[in-house]
Amino acid sequence: MEKSRPREVRLYLYHAGQCDPKKCTGKKMVRFKLARLVEKVNAIPRGSILLDPMAEKALSPADSITKGLTVLDCSWEHVEAVFPQLLVLDLQHRALPYLVAGNPVNFGRPFKLTSVEAFAASLYILGYKEQAASILSKFNWGHTFLEVNREPLEEYSMAKDSKEILKVQAEYI
Ligand SMILES: C[S@@+](CC[C@H](N)C(=O)[O-])C[C@H]1O[C@@H](n2cnc3c(N)ncnc32)[C@H](O)[C@@H]1O
């Protein structure tokens, strides 16, 4: 029997305190109660998907999101040091496939997404398109992310598994 699908995905933000909280998209999501702030690394829900730009496996519709989705909001300068430390925890590390930033600071830059963009891309790929649009709607540039990535996002959301995601990605790189 098919597992029941939650109506919305639970979103968790672990904030490493390395960026300006006024500009941080993750902190803004927490203020709007769109994501729950996790204060300690050990409090990240076990079994949840951790969006890790260095992960070997790509996120795909085959992933189970029943335990939720976690973004680690840290400075890009520290990504290579921070993520490997979390490999000891029971989390599903997943990288997002090729997508470009839609925010005005890094517009058009591939792979390096803000926290809200990473959440929205994941939700879209996992079939939670309304929730993706809803979290982006709190940012005046948010709709741009979906507009510039609509085609790959649609294709990724129809992929069977991580291998198929990589095949689709190859069309765009
Ligand atoms: C490095 S932080 C920077 C956040 C930025 N300070 C902000 O205001 O949104 C962005 C986080 O989003 C997730 N993320 C971004 N791009 C990603 C990718 N290509 N694959 C997987 N996760 C990604 C990761 O959890 C990453 O640590």
**C-alpha termini separation:** 38 Å
Which ions and ligands are bound to the chains? S-adenosylmethionine
The shape is globular
**Helix-strand pattern, N to C?**
EHEEEHEHHHH
Tally of discrete structural domains: 1
Q: Whole-number radius of gyration?
A: 15 Å
**What's the overall average pLDDT, rounded?**
94
Approximately what portion of the residues adopt beta-strand conformation?
A: 5-15%
Please summarize the sheet with the most strands: 5 strands, parallel
Alpha-beta content class: alpha/beta
Helix segment count? Answer: 6
- State the low-pLDDT regions, or none: none
Topology, number of strands: 5
Q: Reading side by side through the largest sheet, how are the strands ordered?
A: 2-1-4-3-5
Note the quaternary state here.
single chain
Helix content: 25-40%
